[in-house]
Amino acid sequence: xxxxxxxxxxxxxxxxxxxxxxxxxxxxxxxxxxxxxxxxxxxxxxxxxxxxxxxxxxxxxxxxxxxxxxxxxxxxxxxxxxxxxxxxxxxxxxxxxxxxxxxxxxxxxxxxxxxxxxxxxxxxxxxxxxxxxxxxxxxxxxxxxxxxxxxxxxxxxxxxxxxxxxxxxxxxxxxxxxxxxxxxxxxxxxxxxxxxxxxxxxxxxxxxxxxxxxxxxxxxxxxxxxxxxxxxxxxxxxxxxxxxxxxxxxxxxxxxxxxxxxxxxxxxxxxxxxxxxxxxxxxxxxxxxxxxxxxxxxxxxxxxxxxxxxxxxxxxxxxxxxxxxxxxxxxxxxxxxxxxxxxxxxxxxxxxxxxxxxxxxxxxxxxxxxxxxxxxxxxxxxxxxxxxxxxxxxxxxxxxxxxxxxxxxxxxxxxxxxxxxxxxxxx
Length: 427
Description:
Residues 27-214, 266-413 form the NAD(P)-binding domain. It contains twelve helices and 18 strands.
């Protein structure tokens, strides 16, 4: 069992030389994603110095954290810094960790699209599975085993073909996708480092959690899928270091959003996160920009919470005296069908269902128009039909509980997308 250091938040090492206060330095992989952006906000509010790892690519999808650069405290005082890096590159991870010397590491970076993992199985294994090992090895190489606390973003997809209902920390795993299998390796390598090297390392087995920051993917008429950043604009300050930093290496970087692709006004709109696909499509229907959209398994049931609630749980896990794995969930189950119905109710439409299986459609009761169809291409090769988490341990030991109810989550996502599509229909 890993033993806690004389505890301050994040198992802080030496204090700040000027203030004498314990260091609170967090390193986040996947900082530009939904969870990473909420976590960065959360930690900055708690006075952390936050570092994020971003991949060097032809464009950056950093809209979710742009507002943190607009924040004078975050930018001028340098409380958030980004570094080029990749979970597939051991050397860069060692350099970043050695430079930053974090007291907490949150490994949120992943290829996180379950359906895509069937097409990119090897890449998913390399990033989500072996990438976690690379990050843990970097901590060990840098001699920080005793001073770092490590959070691993595990997933309810570990349970896959569920062996018991609801699922808790002791429920046997049965992943049903390359994504789930890769995350299973990551889960056990974290446990291995905890037991073999006394590293304070924990797995957060988070059930589905959503927000307006969930990524959107669109399919055009060719059937190609393109990532669509959902925030536009670059704050001038966020570019001020670009001309001062060298192109190579792991220098801190400032960021901008990449170009947006044009979406199509047809049933071909697609997304790999079904909740955001629904809220986005419903918003476009409300604004007259779309008439219908297609989904896969309407009867898949999930335990949905709000991402903002769940990042608090991540932090709480690293503040305990002993490292333990936790399930984070709401304990409530809702179907994709119900998510659709609730979303339409928020724009004043009632959906009634007609037909069966791939011939089922969702028709608007008020207008008679078909707004939802079923397309078999959105089914997974192996479906996960039912996931429900039991977070009793987290409630008891972390004093954590979800705050945002399902109806509120759906309303927030739909309203955010209505505003987004009103100002930028092609987002």
